[in-house]
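Possible race condition, two jobs.
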Amino acid sequence: MNKLRFDYITPEMNEALAEVLMNGAEKYAPHDWEVGESAPTIRDHRESLLRHLHDHALGIEKVHESGIHPLKHAFCRLGMMVTLIERNREKPPTRASWEGRSNLWR
């Protein structure tokens, strides 16, 4: 594998993640989404991600509680989900787990 090119990550991407993570750290606690018994699951993150995408689709420009754009929250939730998957703390749903369900996001 080639060396990763971190210069492809824009400052705006880093700032969006930092803004949402700092807001969460102030509201709850630093790194609370990663550790502890109450840490969110992949499903929790997915539900939040979908809510933020829905808000964006409705034209909402700021999340009521934080004042931050919903796409920034969605971007951060995706990052949290990737982190959990990469750390093998939770596995993403498999194709077999989707069969027979009306909603593929469950």
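Job #2 (started ~2 s after job #1):
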Amino acid sequence: MKDNLTEETSLTFLNLADKFNLDDLREKANEYILENFVAIRHCEDFLDIRKDALIQYLSHDELNVNMDESEAFYAAKDWLVSKPIVYDSDFLFFLSFFLSIFISFFLHTF
């Protein structure tokens, strides 16, 4: 299965690895997602990613955004606006995380 990872299938394989506790596949899928994040964030399945997984990827030191941190900002924005707004502690936590990315993006822009 690890050899079949693509931008379109990596999130599906990650979900399968989580569901069936396949640690090796999970590790390979996570590595693939970090390396190919820019392409994966444009895939339809990206908007279905769990909040905690998105935060993990956006916070990871090895996230490959091709020297363009705006990719992380726009990925978070696209994910956030695709969700129905439910004002709970999860939403507030992600909003504060998103704002930290927003501030970092604009500090590096100017």
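The mean pLDDT is 85.
Logs attached separately.
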